[in-house]
Amino acid sequence: MALSEASTIWLDGALVPWQAAQTHVLTHGLHYGTGVLEGTRVFATADGPAVFRLPEHLRRLDRSARMLRMELPYSVDELTKATVDLVRANGHRDCYLRHFAFLGYGSMGLDMRFSPTTTAIASWHWQPQLPAEGGGIRVKTSSWRRNDANAVPPAAKATGPYLNSVLARREATDAGYDEALLLGPDGSVSECTGENVFAVRDGVLRTPPASAGALEGITQDTVLELARGLGVPVRVEGLLRSDLYAADEVFVGGTAAGVVPVRSLDDRELPAAPGPLTARLREAYEAAVSGADPRYRHWLTPVDR
Q1: Which of 3, 20, 120, 183 has its CA 20 to 30 A from that of 277?
Q2: Please, where are the H alpha helices in the chain?
Q3: Which residues have CB under 8 Å from 83's CB, separation 6+?
Q4: How does DSSP assign 231-272, residue by residue?
Q5: 3-class SS at 14?
Q6: Interacting residues of 9 by C-beta distance below 8 A, sequence separation 6+
Q7: 127 vs 2: CA distance, rounded Å
Q8: Which cofactor does it need (predicted)?
Q9: What is the chain's Cα-based Rg?
Q10: Buried (b) or exposed (e) across 22-46, using 16+ Cβ within 10 A?
Q11: Rounded CA separation 106/258 (Å)
């Protein structure tokens, strides 16, 4: 899907024209995956555009950089202001945001100490990355396993490990499915290529922990908080693939996707898609991101103030 270009990108402290946001072909991060990123969303609300859970995303960006021993040149407060300035400059009412820091041009080779950090923020209009119509998505368990947590820290949202997701998604889409489910090295359920996985059985909502190789997703945390607000019991615990087969409902959640029901896994149809709890959580999520539910307005960073 082609990018819908905006007018400007924030690059190392300045707003520059979209086409001028370029980097050298010998950039360290391009060759070795030494970068960290965040995907964040701006939603239209009655009070104007607002960034959803921006502080949480930026704090995770900072943590990811520290885990990779990258020096992030800007504070969370500075990146917050830069984000708001960019969205305002591009005139977006709703959009996707990509916060990105990577080791730039300066040295080559595996020794990362001599490459400076480049920091960028981009915004553009992006349609949801998984189809929500038709009762949900078709998912296939991938032959690729999720990266071992002892090899690559799953808590770091880093660029290099995303090759794992790219290969799994390509395998699934080539076979006619919408998304891939990745298992951890021990065979337990980890996550999908860009979303956390949720299973509902007997009224209990369950999702795998970070120890399964799953990213500690901000949308995952949002869904769990919304479920608690609805009085639904939640558990963050290990799941087997058979637990998903036996579930009453399965859905996935991520920033780019939202909350999306799963209608089949490995050609096994789920009893209900979307199931009743999935539907309630989708409605609660839409109310939270739009500012319609006052209980969650603290999750919104207004752009027009």
Answers
A1: 183
A2: 28-32, 54-67, 76-90, 162-174, 218-229, 241-245, 276-289
A3: 10, 40, 51, 54, 58, 97, 99, 121, 301
A4: T--EEE----HHHHHT-SEEEEEETTTEEEEEEEETTEEPS-
A5: strand
A6: 15, 16, 17, 18, 21, 86, 120, 121, 122
A7: 11
A8: pyridoxal 5'-phosphate
A9: 19
A10: eeeeebbbbebbbbbbbbbbbbebe
A11: 38
The token duo for 217 is 């997703």
Taking CA atoms, 90 is separated from 50, 79, 94, 95, 141, in Å, by 14, 16, 11, 10, 39
* Distance of alpha carbon 1 from alpha carbon 161, whole angstroms: 22
Q: Residues for the chain: how many in total?
A: 305
**CATH code of the domain made up of 137-289:** 3.20.10.10
**C-alpha triplet 171, 195, 45: angle, nearest 5°:** 130
Distance CA 184, CA 162 (A): 15
Give the torsion sign (CA, 10, 14, 18, 23).
Answer: negative
Distance CA 49, CA 52 (A): 10
* Architecture, CATH, for domain 8-124: 2-Layer Sandwich (3.30)
> Tell me, what amino acid is at 249?
E
Which of 1, 74, 38 lies closest to 159 in space, CA to CA? 38
Domain definitions of the chain by residue range: 8-124, 137-289
Euclidean distance between CA atoms 208 and 186, whole angstroms: 13
What residues act catalytically?
157
How do the pLDDT tens digits run along the chain, 305 residues long? 667 889 999 999 999 999 999 999 999 999 999 999 999 999 999 999 999 999 999 999 999 999 999 999 999 999 999 999 999 999 999 999 999 999 999 999 999 999 999 999 999 998 776 776 668 999 999 999 998 877 888 889 999 999 999 999 999 999 999 999 999 999 999 999 999 999 999 999 999 999 899 999 999 999 999 999 999 999 999 999 999 999 999 999 999 999 999 999 999 999 878 899 999 999 999 999 999 999 999 999 999 86
